[in-house]
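Progress against Task 2.4 (sequence-to-structure conversion) is shown through the following example record, which the project officer requested during the mid-term review.
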Amino acid sequence: MAIAQSLAPTSSSAARAARPMFRRAALPRVAATGVGATGEPARRLVAAFDPAIPLASAVTPPSGWYTDPEFLRLELDRVFLRGWQAVGHIGQVKNPNDFFTGRLGNVEFVICRDANGKLRAFHNVCRHHASLLACGSGQKTCFQCPYHGWTYGLDGNLLKATRISGIKNFNKNDFGLIPIKVATWGPFVLARFDDFSEDTIHDVVEDEWLGSASELLSRNGIDTSLHHLCRREYVIQCNWKVFCDNYLDGGYHVPYAHGALASGLELQSYETLTYERVSVQRCGSAPAEQEDIDRLGTKATYAFVYPNFMINRYGPWMDTNLAVPLDATRCKVVFDYFLDESLLDDQNFIDRSLKDSEQVQMEDIALCEGVQRGLESPAYSVGRYAPSVEMAMHHFHRLLHADLAG
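Structure tokens generated for the chain above:
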């Protein structure tokens, strides 16, 4: 399928007008992490990749894309802090007063559900002297700053400002938490850091985030009500794109690195589909040799949602991988596991499945960390694509180039 331009982001001019100081306070500081007087080397690295060259003749992006701190700052500004980003799952904010926190680049955020059940998101920063308000996850009826006690409702309004007698020209309505746009699709919580409008329309979110791939993903059960089972987090000594590239090589590495997994897949059936900002890899599963429930089912679907979210759906199981950059050569990968409710009592199946998944992750971590060390070697500059399998990887690099060059 031909690659199409992504939809232009939408915003509400009325909401921007209502909070003019919020936009001034938040966005310039975010954007400044990526561009400025020192931005030219990063732009030269962007220009070193030509997305117009056909896959069979193309070379990969230069190693600087994976090693240069300034290039990562440009990515944070042009890629991660624009458009919808996956940040969690709805099980984390299932009930009123639930919350969880996160960080992306220099943005600290908190996602919560207020007392009326409305999903909200804010910059997790006190408006008094910039202390972080909340940490981790859990339940709160309000956010109280641990530094000086300023207190905010879960709707973001400032409820209490301590010891401000004598202060002049102060209106507490101007010092609420700075909002972040938030929405959901299926079991996933999404945020965008470049739009302060309050309302979200599901169809618009779906179209902007998934484009024409949304129908295929829905048909494959990705937006169904599976039970969240557990979370695993890995800090990997590699650039976030190394992990994504590994995911997007069309199963190329599977028979060499994942022997146990390869034995359960019919790799000759592997196919890759590309959409506007999504690529989907699909593969049939080998017939199970025993009567036990097969974790892989009859067909495995691997969906990559640009820039850094991966959804793996097979049999009664789904897991997601979110690759969050920590610095130019390290990332945190968050795995969330979901399971059909009918199998929640089958602890043997759960333990075996998690063990199988952990084995694959350990194998991938070793691969990715080895690739990162090679990228940092003076012996490597650019590589080539395998045209019959690495279409999704090339698609990913072209999308990155379009955002970074824009």
